[in-house]
């Protein structure tokens, strides 16, 4: 609860970057990739999947969260 606003703001800023870079196709690709992914992925594998099946901007949310 103490850092909810920070967390929510980060998600909002990240979603803005994703939409700016990949438009609606990136969101549609994300939905399709997540629905079709059956195995559990570790962080590097998830980032690679997002980068190849969705868009680099989506992978960057994971890769650059703490930047």
Task: Describe this entry's structure for a reader.
It is a single chain. With 67 residues, the chain is mostly helical. The chain has 3 helices and no strands. It has helices at 4-36, 43-53, 56-63. Helix 2 (43-53) runs antiparallel to helix 3. The longest helix is centred in the first third of the chain and has 33 residues, at 4-36. It is globular and about 35 Å long. 7% of the residues are buried.
Strand content: under 5%
Instruction: Give the assembly state of these chains.
Output: single chain
Mean pLDDT: 94
How many H/I helical runs? 3
Largest sheet: none
Q: List low-pLDDT spans.
A: none
What is the terminal-to-terminal distance?
Answer: 22 Å
Overall structural class, as computed from helix and strand content, comes to mainly alpha
List keywords for this structure.
67 residues; mainly alpha; 3 helices; 78% helix
